[in-house]
Amino acid sequence: MSAAAIDISGTHRGSGSGKDDLQLTEDLEELASEWTQLESAGIGNPYHGFLWCKAFQNTLGTAERSRPLIALLRSAGRPILLLPLSLFTHNGIKVLAFLSARFGNQNTGLWDKAFYEAVGPETIRSVLDRVCQESSADCIDLQNVPCHWNGRAHPLVLDNAQLSPNPLYRGSVTDTFEDVFKALHSKSARKNITRKQRHLQEAGNYEIRVCQQPAEIEAGLEAFLKQREARAQITGIPNAFSGPEARAFLRQATQSTALPVTPDTTSAPLKIWTLSVSGQIRATYLCGQDKGTLHAYSNSVAHDEFLKNSPGLVLIREIVEKICADPDTKTLDLGIGEEHYKTSWTRPEPMCDSRHSRTAKGKIYSAVQTAKTRLKSRIRNSDRLWAMVKNLRKMRASGN
Questions:
Q1: How many angstroms separate the CA atoms of 365 and 370, rounded?
Q2: What is the pLDDT of residue 276?
Q3: How far apart are CA 168 and CA 350, in angstroms?
Q4: Where do runs of H (alpha helix) occur along 243-382?
Q5: Could you tell me the CA-to-CA distances from 311 to 237, 276, 304 in Å, in that order?
Q6: Cα–Cα distance between 53 and 31 in angstroms, integer?
Q7: What 3-state DSSP class applies to 330?
Q8: Do 320 and 340 form a contact (C-beta atoms < 8 A)?
Q9: pLDDT below 50 — which residues of the chain?
């Protein structure tokens, strides 16, 4: 498909007629069929899937009073690009950002593969400019976009892009588990995690489970939420899932019966993996599957007598072993943000933040956000400054 053939001079808002190439709508259901078609046949990530975005808008989006704006680009009546966006006002400036950006690990959009491979910067700038114009937005803020994705520089990485504060952690799982384990861990590290796994197994009733039935999904989610809250109180690290809306979002994102499905989306966006010992869940990992990639979204661990045997690290080891044995899974994605367990299984890949401004107010917003991102990156990449941040969190958690 030639990118030059795309004409986006005509737009319409929510008419659903398919006559024009670019459609903007606030109604997610209006585009459900084409959305899931592109999700199934194209390339993207779970955080821009229909059910994920629907779960977010039903809960957190409604609570935040965010206004969804879904942009769908068609060619010859066929969907080729979908950007799930949200419109908000910041100090009188109207800004578009990715829908559920705070709760997703990366932002890519959903693409027809041929269009993705061929599209050039002029077409992308034209699309973004029309989206801003038709929505009366001053600026579109595209954060946490992979710098390089599916064989090329991502088209949403614009000329003014800067590195995001946190990279994405991804790794190949096409080799045998033994080869992956040996390649990424020293002999002493392998012995240490194997010893911890053996101690957990010897404690009795050791089980790794991917929750399927409603009762076990609810039990896994409750364990995740309680463990995350305990972690926040001990470490001072903010718990993004502490509020009722966030909990409702996770319930919809993990329970296939909570949202209507379509022929192309037959299960919930997230599956809950659990590690149980002595009849209790000691660690969890919420994961999404997108074609050949397992997206490990968020995890938790119980702070109890088994913590010394690192059930969270053992669960990740078990997950990696199982997906290495799955011929359909090629890549492990551990999301953004540096953690030791991530660097032991994957390698960092840079992410980018880009902004496209339509008005003078948009340029002001863009300049301020660029400065904030630069400051965040400086803090995150400084051992001394980041250690100070972590110490302050611990002091706040302990009440000192």
A1: 8
A2: 98
A3: 6
A4: 244-254, 311-324, 340-343, 360-380
A5: 20, 9, 10
A6: 12
A7: coil
A8: no
A9: 1-20, 258-259, 261-265
> Distance between terminal CA atoms of the chain?
61
CA dihedral 79, 81, 87, 90 (to 10 degrees): -170
Q: What is residue 389's predicted lDDT score, i.e. its pLDDT?
A: 61
The DSSP string of 216-231 is: HHHHHHHHHHHHHHHH
Match 């958690």 to its residue by tokens: 397
| Rg of the chain (C-alpha set) | 22
Q: Is the dihedral of CA 46, 49, 51, 56 positive or negative?
A: positive
Residue 398 is predicted with a pLDDT of 56
CA distance linking residue 161 with residue 125, whole number of Å? 13
Instruction: Answer positive or negative: Cα dihedral of 211, 217, 221, 227.
Output: negative
Q: In this structure, are residues 221 and 250 in contact, taking their beta carbons and an 8 Å threshold? A: yes
User: What confidence score (pLDDT) does residue 12 get?
Assistant: 46
Token couple for 101: 């950006």
In this predicted structure, what is the pLDDT of residue 1?
40
pLDDT of residue 393: 60
Residue 383: burial class (beta carbons within 10 Å; 0-12, 13-18, 19+): exposed
Residue 367 carries which side chain, given as an amino acid letter? A
- Cα dihedral across residues 103, 104, 107, 112: positive or negative: negative
Per-residue pLDDT of 239-286, as tens digits, reads 899 999 999 999 999 986 544 544 444 579 999 999 999 999 999 999
Q: Which of 356, 343, 289, 363 is nearest to 166 (CA)?
A: 343
In sequence order, the β-bridge partners of residue 287 are 271, 296
Q: Are strands 293-301 and 331-336 parallel, antiparallel or unpaired?
A: parallel
Beta bridge partners of 353: 162
> Using an 8 Å Cβ cutoff, are 144 and 354 in contact?
no
pLDDT value at residue 385: 64
The residue behind tokens 């009440």 is: 399
Token pair recorded at residue 158: 């614009």
Query: DSSP states of 245-276 as a string?
Result: HHHHHHHHHH-GGGS--BTTB-S-S-EEEEEE
Place of tokens 């080891």: 317
Picking from 280, 284, 276, the residue whose alpha carbon sits closest to that of residue 229 is 284
